[in-house]
């Protein structure tokens, strides 16, 4: 059993920095939170998965509630839908769900080695999706960067191919925080020369019809949209690797660092369209 005791920083943005309209955002945050002193939740995190098939591709989905399928019926979360989509293309693929709701990058870093050691064989691809809870809690981006950097280094040391899945900070934390956070992912992808998908919630963030009532987690329709968009990147990373093997950037999206440019993050107030 792993216990997450680290103190990453403030668990939520200061109320002095959040407008009244942002209070609902803070309340939604409580739905994602798991106390750091709590044991890792039951399910995948407590019991290693059953032995994967000896043939075909094996993908490890390592992340938080977005990977775990929070609030969705069995079979409707990101991992099973991704597996179904890849199999529909004729690929013999098994995707393992190593998502834990509430995980920060610190919690993920603490359990990554344990997860890898619990697999019957090395995965052909690791989807690394963490950081949303860091942003929601206002954790110092330097901590988030250090944790992701360490996880990417560990995965590289083990000879594993990675698709780093990016996240964006909510705009109500201010432009300085948002720019510092958002630039973490493209910069680490370039540094580690790993495959990169810029934003997990692309096309889904801040669209009520594609999200659950909390406004943060995708509903079944939202998951289908996420899968539809990310499948080409996963397929390429799995079969071909990144352009020029070891080169970052499966897509050509620029780093979200331009001043004055509004881009949808975890909760941007963008209307459904």
Write the topology of this structure.
Blueprint: H1 23-32, E1 57-63, H2 65-68, H3 78-88, E2 93-99, H4 105-117, E3 125-129, H5 132-136, H6 141-157, E4 162-165, H7 175-182, H8 184-192, E5 195-197, H9 220-239
Parallel strand pairs: 1-2, 1-3, 3-4, 4-5
Helix pairs in contact: 3-9, 4-6, 6-8
Name of the CATH homologous superfamily of the domain at 57-239? SGNH hydrolase
Instruction: Give the averaged pLDDT, no decimals.
Output: 81
Number of strands: 5
Q: Count helical runs.
A: 9
CATH architecture of the domain at 57-239: 3-Layer(aba) Sandwich
Biggest sheet: strand arrangement: 2-1-3-4-5
CATH class of the domain at 57-239: Alpha Beta
N- to C-terminal distance: 44 Å
State the secondary-structure class. alpha/beta
The main β sheet shows up as: 5 strands, parallel
CATH topology of the domain at 57-239: Rossmann fold
What does this structure look like?
The chain is α/β, with parallel strands linked by helices. The chain has a domain at 57-239: Rossmann fold (3-Layer(aba) Sandwich). It has nine helices and five strands; from the N terminus they run αβααβαβααβααβα. The chain has a five-stranded parallel beta sheet, sandwiched between helices. α3 packs across α9 (220-239) and α4 (105-117) runs parallel beside α6. The relative contact order is 0.15. Mean pLDDT is 81; it is low at 1-48, 247-262 and 268-273.
Tag the structure with descriptive keywords:
alpha/beta, Rossmann fold, five-stranded parallel sheet
Question: What is the gist of this entry?
Answer:
36% of the residues lie in helices and 10% in strands. It has helices spanning 23-32, 65-68, 78-88, 105-117, 132-136, 141-157, 175-182, 184-192, 220-239; strands spanning 57-63, 93-99, 125-129, 162-165, 195-197.
